[in-house]
Amino acid sequence: MAAMMRRPEPDRTNVALLRPLLHTGQGFYFFAVALLIPAAWFVYAWYLQLIRGLGLTSMRTPVGAPWGAYIANFVFFVGLAHGGIAIAAAIRLLNLTKYTPVARIGEVLTIISLMMAGVSITIDMGRPDRIFNIIIYWPQRVGTSSLSWDVTVIIIYFTLSTLYLWLTMRKDLVLCAKRFPKLSWFYKILLIGYKPDEEHKIERMAWWLSIAIVFLIVMLSGGVVPWIFGLLPSQPGWFSALAGPYFLTAAIGSAIAAVIVVSGVLRKLFNWQEYIKPEIFKGLGTFLGIITLFYIYLILAEQLTMRYAAPLSEFLISEKLFQGEFAPIFWPMLLLGFFTPAIILVSQAIHPQWFGVTRTILASGAIVVAFWVKRFLIVVPSLLRPLLPFPEGSYSPSWVEWSIVAGIIASAILLYTLFLKVFPIVELGEE
Amino acid sequence: MIDLLLRLTDFVIPANAIAAEVSDRQTMSGNIGFIVLAIIVGPVIILTIASMLGHPRTFRIPGLFIGSMILLISAIISSFAAAGMLLKLIIPQ
């Protein structure tokens, strides 16, 4: 009886969960403008890069790094994209109903991250005006090019993820269409062919699609994306059968960390303490801590292989990280970005009295940043050591690259914010 | 020490280059990409079909799903073409 009294009524719950759609305060406009400024600056920086070429970046060949911050950004966003919807799929497949409030937060993160990954890779292209050649020459290239596999699988993954979100959101769109007459035309388009009895069929389809999505995540984040690097025998530091599990672990870790951060921010902003409960942060935080520790183990395994009796070129890449030019980034990343947050998160699981939502969010935030840095350290140091007798190069992103990377991140947050203003980010109850 | 190692590493380069050449030849002749994609896309197609079959036997939602999938993939491909055309106007040719 007491539990029933504590449970919020459906209508009150829905009003609370629709708060981002119902209220638009001054803070929203300030936030939107704060994001629009770097986004506009990114468009300007990209325009400059388009008309003057990649010479505006610090990427150089044959001396220097032909890939840099853009590719690191691409791998980072692909990783975020995979873990986000993995949480939603796991909730459905394993019946983890406790985590349902964060399912859609992960699904939306997936779709926006995939878009940003696409933008990052397009910007890295020397001639992005030839982008349609990817489609035109697909039949000739797909047999041998791992980049073609990437495009194919990412398009399939984006399509399935978007349709999964659309199907599972239709029930809530009916409520939105009733509550927000101004936007009802838009909701009605998305509700095409809707009938109230479709819920059961959608549940069944979503269950099977969850399996397909989990499979795609493994094959994409643990397959075709790491194979861009891991299949290159001539590239010390990349050529490794470990690349798949390495990238997959990073993808799941970074995405869970991002879901924790986004859920924490939304919980605070919209007073959703009642709906996104501390147990969710505790569970996800513990899992993240374990995943991060496992990732540290993979770093150890990789570095040991590179330093024990590997070809000298491998050892020299490892040296760059341990005591070379990348040491000032590598060690803080490892100790402050991975190790300390992982210990905090695992300690909270062992000693429940140490648990704190804010601490979990901060630790997760540090892990998100560390995973971006790690992608940078995967991409760049290997490329600086030339395979032909050229002098060794150096790479530090130019202002254009930083502007574009910052602008892409700002655009991702802006898109997420816009989604919040139009769609319910947490599954609504019956009304 | 590092300088010495850097000089020594030049000996490793030919081996790497040969390894790359052999690897390329194997990949080219095998068209391994079709096998890779079949392994990835095959199960996804089977699972997607499985999602549409079974109870309740209605073809309205699966129909909508297929229609939307075709629409979305077409939109993505069209956006590649549109982006290419738009960028041609900006990038000096």
Walkthrough of the structure:
The complex is a heterodimer of chains A (431) and B (93). The model of chain A is unreliable at 1-7 (pLDDT under 50). Chain A has helices spanning 2-6, 10-17, 19-22, 26-52, 69-93, 103-124, 133-136, 138-141, 146-179, 184-190, 199-230, 243-269, 278-308, 312-322, 327-350, 357-384, 399-422. Chain A is 74% helix and 0% strand. Chain A has 431 residues and is mostly helical. Chain A has a single domain (26-385, 395-422), classed as Formate dehydrogenase/DMSO reductase domain (Formate dehydrogenase/DMSO reductase fold). Chain B is mainly α and 93 residues long. Chain B has one domain. Chain B starts with a helix and ends with a helix. The chains are: A mainly alpha (431), B mainly alpha (93).
Uncertain stretches of 5 or more adjacent residues of chain B: none
The helix tally of chain A amounts to: 17
CATH topology of chain A: Formate dehydrogenase/DMSO reductase fold
* Cα distance spanning the termini of chain A: 22 Å
Oligomer: heterodimer
CATH class type of chain A? Mainly Alpha
Order of helices and strands of chain B: HHHH
| Helix-strand makeup class of chain A | mainly alpha
Radius of gyration of chain B: 24 Å
Mean pLDDT of chain B, rounded to whole units?
Answer: 78
Number of domains of chain B: 1
Order of secondary-structure elements of chain A = HHHHHHHHHHHHHHHHH
Radius of gyration of chain A (CA) equals 22 Å
Fraction in helix of chain B = over 70%
Count of all domains of chain A: 1
